[in-house]
Amino acid sequence: MKNRIELDFWAYPNEILNRMRREGVLCTVVDEASNHNVITLGWGQIGPFYHGHPVLAIAVTPQRHSWIFLEKVPEFVIAVPDDSLRKAVDLCGTISGRDADKFKASGLTPVESACVKAPSILECPINIECRIYAKVSPPHFLLTPEHRKAPVGYQHTIYFAEVLGTFGWEADCGHQDP
Ligand SMILES: Cc1cc2nc3c(=O)[nH]c(=O)nc-3n(C[C@H](O)[C@H](O)[C@H](O)COP(=O)(O)O)c2cc1C
User: Please, are residues 121 and 108 in contact by the beta-carbon 8 Å criterion?
Assistant: First the structure.
């Protein structure tokens, strides 16, 4: 098991936003019974500050299985993938957790997080643990005109969250006991 290390969130906004706008980032969610799910997200915003913590906003439509989890447990983890995880990110953005266990299907490993119930992902170099403090339900004017053409029931809920912690993993030094 790799050791968790704390990272400085403000070293990574470019990496997070670039991943989001290209292949997407992973977002894990959990329900009261500790069932979890993972979804690929391409829409997000970053800014300072809520009670001194960085702010991260995501948008999820009620059609997504993950939306139900967010409504039940207002927490999530944004797990930022690297290039080696492209297939897994694609899978989590095309299959629904209603139909499959996406962790098993993608080979991603959920591990306990430090500050929230939603799991972190072992294979992702950056895991951002977030607690939702506000949400904006449609109709609203926060997304693109294209998004606003959809029926209201299909439009995204925007969740604003405070970043409670940003974590990575200690580099594997390759040391093996004799
Ligand atoms: C690159 C990419 C970005 C996506 N961005 C979002 C997003 O920001 N919000 C959203 O609700 N769905 C987004 N999706 C769609 C969901 O990831 C997809 O519908 C997923 O299968 C839903 O999983 P779930 O039903 O298990 O929650 C995106 C998909 C891809 C491939």
Answer: yes
